[in-house]
Structure formats: C-alpha cells, structure tokens
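Appendix B. Raw example, untouched.
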Amino acid sequence: MRRGGRIVVLRVKQKITSHYGKRWGRFHRGIDLRTWNLAFWKPQAIVFPEKCEILRIWEDDWGGGIAVKPLSSVMYDELKFIHLQISPLLKEGQICNTGLYMGHSSLSKLNKSHHLHFETWVANTTVDPTLYLDHREYDYD
C-alpha cells in the first residue's frame, strides 16, 4: 500500500491515543486510534486495510467487533477492530477487498469516546499493532 494509507478514512495522520502494552495496571492488547473527524464533527468511516476474510462479528458492552484473517499479510493470523457500528451487509466467511466500508466508530455502554481499538495476532498471541502499521506504511503519530 502506498505511503500515507489509512485504516480510518481521514486526510491527516491518524493519532494513536493509547499504545500497546501496560497501562493503568493492566495490559492493553492493542492500540487505540482517534476516529472523531473534527472537520465534520462526526465519527469516521472504517475500511478494510487489505483483502480479508471475516472470521467473527460480535456485539457486546464495548460495541461491535470484527475479527478478520488478512489475506495479503501472511505473517498475521488475525486482525481485530473493536468499538464499531458494523455494516449490516457484512457476514462471517465473506471476503472483503481493501477499502471496503467496515463500519464507523461508535459509543457504547463501556466505550465513552470515539476511537478504534485495533489488535494484531500471530500464533494466538497479541503483537504490537504498530508493527503492522509500519510494515504497510500507514501514516500515524
């Protein structure tokens, strides 16, 4: 993917609001990316970062979640996107192309700010998602 690609659709760098690793005495298994579009004062659209197969879709107190198998990045077994209002057109087992609309950020019972929680998994273990972003040359700070 070209330099400056985005997981979320916005024409500025994506801001990581919470990093991978220990925080508040617990381990944060992913990163949080800001998903509130200040220019339009609304949540951002979230798109598939690469061709993926949908493994699971769920809804809980944290909002919607979707787990996918990336079909281009062979080193990653699973990517998870959490705190979403997921498109009703998506189904488990579906193959989705890069850039297809996944949903948009949402608030929930436990999630009180618009952000995307993003996790990467290899061999049933979480790894720092910034490695995925760096490998695919996504632009973030």
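End of appendix B.
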